[in-house]
Amino acid sequence: MEEKVKNKNKKQKKLHPNDQNSKSTSDFAFKPCSDVKGLRFGGQFIVKSFTIRRARLLELLRLISLPPPTTTTQHREKTTNWKSPFPSTTAFLPTNFTILAHHAWHTLTLGLGTKKSKVVIFVFESENMKAAMDGLWPPEIPLGEVNKKLIRGTMGCEMARFKFRKGCITFYVYAVRRIGNLGFSCADDLRTILQSVAALKDFIDHTAMLAMPNQKSINYRAVPPPVAMAH
Predict the structure, then answer these.
(1) Within a domain: 142
(2) Is residue 55 domain-resident?
(3) How many domains does the chain have?
(4) Residues annotated as region Disordered (predicted)?
């Protein structure tokens, strides 16, 4: 009996997770692209046809409430040495059609339709990897094809997924690296983006909060300048 108890204890020690030191704890979050979780839509199947587009840098910074890069005289004189923030990051935002369609679908279904939009951010381990993926990925893509073409279709890579619900906008942040690489060389960029998204307040109305200079919200009204009047 004593020998059987000793054998059981030995098996339990082998299966204890603290004894698995083959990988660092930071690598457990990375999984092959075929296994990593993608975008979730719930029961609203119609939103899969809504499109998202590649975001400009200033749009991404504004969305996650980060200050824009400063342009000093030194930067103007030496533009070749200037580097933009997050050079290895690609983000996709809802298009004008998606923003209007979400609002229309919510209205037509008498409030039963979802008003949730999705923002997808990819942080690559290097600028070269981002440039290669930007050349392969389309500038605009339906939400229903993101899992198949962007996440599952990224061959030879593995990802770590982070999801944040911020009111009517859900942020999906993916860290992307080559299979076999340890650690993450752009960890500082990833950390800054995750902290910024986590600190965001809930978006109440994405039609207004996602309005960019060339993408006005549907309730936008131009306010005329004040006119001087003589009394």
Answers:
(1) yes
(2) yes
(3) 1
(4) 1-27
What secondary structure does DSSP assign to 84-153, as a single string? -SSTTEEEEEE-HHHHHHHHHHHHHTTT-S---EEEEEEEESSHHHHHHHHHHS-SEEEGGGIIIIIITT
Mean pLDDT, the chain, as a whole number? 77
Q: Is residue 146 part of a domain?
A: yes
Q: What is the pLDDT of residues 191-231, one digit of tens each?
A: 999 999 999 988 887 766 565 555 554 444 444 444 444 44
- The amino acid sitting at 25 is T
Buried residues in 213-231 as b, exposed as e (16+ CB within 10 A)? eeeebeeeeeeeeeeeeee
Residue 68 has pLDDT above 70, yes or no: yes
Per the structure, the complete domain to which residue 191 belongs is given by 48-64+86-211
Looking at residue 53, its pLDDT comes to 94
Handedness of CA 108, 111, 113, 117 (dihedral sign): positive
- 9 has a pLDDT exceeding 90: no
